[in-house]
Amino acid sequence: MGSGLPIFLLITCLQVLVIEAVTDSSDLSALNAVKSNWKNTPPSWIGSDPCGGGWEGIGCTGSRITYIILTGMGLSGTLTGDIGDFPELQTLDLSQNKGLTGILPSTIVNLKKLENLFLVDCSFNGPIPDGIGSLTRLVSLSVASNNFNGPIPPSIGKMSNLSLLDLTDNKLSGTIPVSDGTSPGLDLLLNARHFHLGKNLLTGGIPPNLFSSNMKLLHVLFDSNQLNGSLPSTLELVQTLEVIRLDRNSLTGPILFNFTNLPNLSELYLSNNKFSGSIPDLSGKNLLTYVDMSNNSFDASLIPPWFSSLQSMTSLYLSLSLSLSLSPNTHKAQRQYNNIHTLFFCSLG
Ligand SMILES: *[C@@H]1O[C@H](CO)[C@@H](O)[C@H](O)[C@H]1NC(C)=O
Ligand SMILES: *[C@@H]1O[C@H](CO)[C@@H](O)[C@H](O)[C@H]1NC(C)=O
Ligand SMILES: *[C@@H]1O[C@H](CO)[C@@H](O)[C@H](O)[C@H]1NC(C)=O
Ligand SMILES: *[C@@H]1O[C@H](CO)[C@@H](O)[C@H](O)[C@H]1NC(C)=O
Ligand SMILES: *[C@@H]1O[C@H](CO)[C@@H](O)[C@H](O)[C@H]1NC(C)=O
């Protein structure tokens, strides 16, 4: 009886330790506020301890919420300013929740430790907050397939570690921002691998100073916009390039561009523009697998001499004012271009 009390106390203390919530109380109240604007939150979101209680999609380091990954959960609702109240958050991924609508609150810029922001294939609208560039730790910024409108914030240029910039398939307008001494721009993103700006409403030219030899870009995807002017020859300074998509714009002029300097180029989409002059020389581009230059105004000429030297080509689409049509099934075509599986010469003339 005399020794029973300390043991009882010890057990009680252990129980208190186990029951005590792990989650930092300010993170908990931020998450509860965010949750209150959503429907279809995961069934495991019960109780008041996301970190200790195994809330699906919530990751913690110690007591702090560091990950919110709720991909394809069928969430619906809006984001309120509370989304900015997770000072330790590193990854926010709400992708593939079509029911998430409304604006992206400007408090998102308070997530100073954020490294990954994925809001792909939701229904967000309004502008991308101007100040988003203060998320200087971001490595991935992907907001593809929403209804974002307004300009591409120049401040994105301040995200010096950004690798993936994916703004595809929105309603972004205005020009591609480049730095001008006072304002930042995308030319400052020297660690970027991916510029995905396709399927928007971007206008103006492709700025020559967007590209430099210090860049490490693999993909430049600007297709399906309203870009005009000529293709800046500075693009050839980015020797790491593998995929260039400029199709479905209003680009003009001859392509004064030396593709020889892009050793790893594998896909080149130039179709549905107003390019003129001679067909670009692609001789020796042995890694090229896909080329589409159709629906432009290139000079009519015979089969370019570089043509039969391409070794990896699986698809080549040229559309010239030629009365020439080759079937890929003819013996001659098979023999001569036996690595070219699809070969189209369409006559527009
Ligand atoms: C960029 O990444 C490097 C290496 O991971 C890191 O040391 C640096 O602090 C990062 N820069 C910023 C602004 O977060
Ligand atoms: C490009 O389009 C803009 C309007 O979006 C126009 O002001 C500009 O003159 C055009 N530039 C060229 C080179 O056609
Ligand atoms: C081309 O690709 C190879 C293999 O991935 C790589 O080692 C090389 O650095 C690349 N060249 C350039 C200029 O990026
Ligand atoms: C492209 O560059 C290569 C080597 O850098 C050179 O041999 C070739 O003549 C150039 N072609 C054109 C069209 O400037
Ligand atoms: C050719 O490209 C232009 C844009 O330059 C586009 O408006 C037009 O619809 C395209 N034509 C075809 C047949 O695809």
UniProtKB/TrEMBL annotation:
<keyword id="KW-0472">Membrane</keyword>
<protein>
    <recommendedName>
        <fullName>non-specific serine/threonine protein kinase</fullName>
        <ecNumber>2.7.11.1</ecNumber>
    </recommendedName>
</protein>
<keyword id="KW-0723">Serine/threonine-protein kinase</keyword>
<keyword id="KW-0677">Repeat</keyword>
<keyword id="KW-0732">Signal</keyword>
<keyword id="KW-0067">ATP-binding</keyword>
<feature type="signal peptide">
    <location>
        <begin position="1"/>
        <end position="21"/>
    </location>
</feature>
<dbReference type="InterPro" id="IPR001611">
    <property type="entry name" value="Leu-rich_rpt"/>
</dbReference>
<dbReference type="Pfam" id="PF00560">
    <property type="entry name" value="LRR_1"/>
</dbReference>
<dbReference type="Pfam" id="PF08263">
    <property type="entry name" value="LRRNT_2"/>
</dbReference>
<keyword id="KW-0808">Transferase</keyword>
<keyword id="KW-0325">Glycoprotein</keyword>
<feature type="domain" description="Leucine-rich repeat-containing N-terminal plant-type">
    <location>
        <begin position="25"/>
        <end position="61"/>
    </location>
</feature>
<dbReference type="InterPro" id="IPR032675">
    <property type="entry name" value="LRR_dom_sf"/>
</dbReference>
<keyword id="KW-0433">Leucine-rich repeat</keyword>
<keyword id="KW-0547">Nucleotide-binding</keyword>
<keyword id="KW-0418">Kinase</keyword>
<dbReference type="InterPro" id="IPR013210">
    <property type="entry name" value="LRR_N_plant-typ"/>
</dbReference>
